[in-house]
Amino acid sequence: MRILVIGGTSFVGRTIVGAALGRGHHVTTFNRGLTGKDIDGVEALRGDRSTDEGVAPLAGRGFDAVIDPGGLIPAHVLRTARAVAASAPFYAFVSTTGVYQTWNTVPVDESTATWPGVADQDGDPADFEKLRVHKRGCELAVEQAYGLDASLIARAGSIVGPHDNLGQLPWWLTRIAAGGPVLAPGDPTRSLQLIDVRDVSTFVLDQVEAQASGIYNVVPDEPNTTMGQLIDNCVQATGSDATPIWTDEGFLFSHGVQPWAELPLWIPALPDTAGFWAVSGAAARAAGLRTRPFGDSVRDTWDWLQSGGEVRTAPGTPPFGLAKEKEQQVLAAWDS
Ligand SMILES: NC(=O)c1ccc[n+]([C@@H]2O[C@H](COP(=O)([O-])OP(=O)(O)OC[C@H]3O[C@@H](n4cnc5c(N)ncnc54)[C@H](OP(=O)(O)O)[C@@H]3O)[C@@H](O)[C@H]2O)c1
Description:
The chain is built from ten helices and 13 strands. By secondary structure, the protein is of the alpha/beta class. The chain binds NADP nicotinamide-adenine-dinucleotide phosphate.
């Protein structure tokens, strides 16, 4: 197939491009040339989806499908989709399970109410506060330009794997590789639901090849690891002597340790987070999504870091991780 990937040089898009080339497709990427490098084997088009002139290089070209993994602003997605609608019959968009209004509080499936996004809304891609509403607007932009029968909306949950551009699992790996007592949050049996970027990519490409439309949560159907397993997997992958010190959540709050931001992927077990790791992936599973063991994602992410991989975040991405000095202070307080 002739596949156009909008972006394609960072994490999800980069992985899709590599996999599409591996399947023998002809891949064209479209980006500004600011993030990452073009992958060997692609036809690289330069352009900027934030202006009308910027998408001019897409005019008059023919593709069998478009994959848009990184769209963040509805107006940018609408502009891109309109620019290719006459010359490409299918549009796949990577969205987020954060589009559900109750995404963290109760279990959700594809029928759950979403935020009221607006298909032509403009904005700043670095404005993370508006990310969820904007992603819903992006979905509506795809629907407006293509209709639901010629589009795929892949709502990914938290994504891990090589070329990670947020840095949550890479932070844990790097911290655990440094060894010693490691501040570990809450209950080691607390479940997590994390999807490997390569499994997202396989699912999207399978649907694109079949030109199969639909809206799917792209998550493991069940929680696929726990906080304890995550740390054990990191110890195994890095060969570290690190020892987790499991610490009461209330104690961590009282010492100002921030869930998610400072101890990445830690979502405290509170009533208003009951839905966080409880997204239904049943529809995607029925449509063919398969997920690899989480330990493989941890090992391969460590191998990528060891081979020189670096987390390159997009502008506006909040930083992740706990400062060493703060960790030591909190561990000392817990010990006493
Ligand atoms: N990480 C997670 O846990 C998670 C969870 C749920 C959903 N998601 C979604 O997954 C997606 C991840 O995307 P990704 O960053 O990995 O995709 P990517 O396609 O690998 O990288 C983003 C691409 O967009 C290009 N780009 C940015 N601004 C552009 C512009 N104005 N015009 C043209 N190209 C532009 C960048 O290149 P240039 O800068 O060179 O233009 C880059 O190639 C996001 O949509 C995110 O919402 C992530």
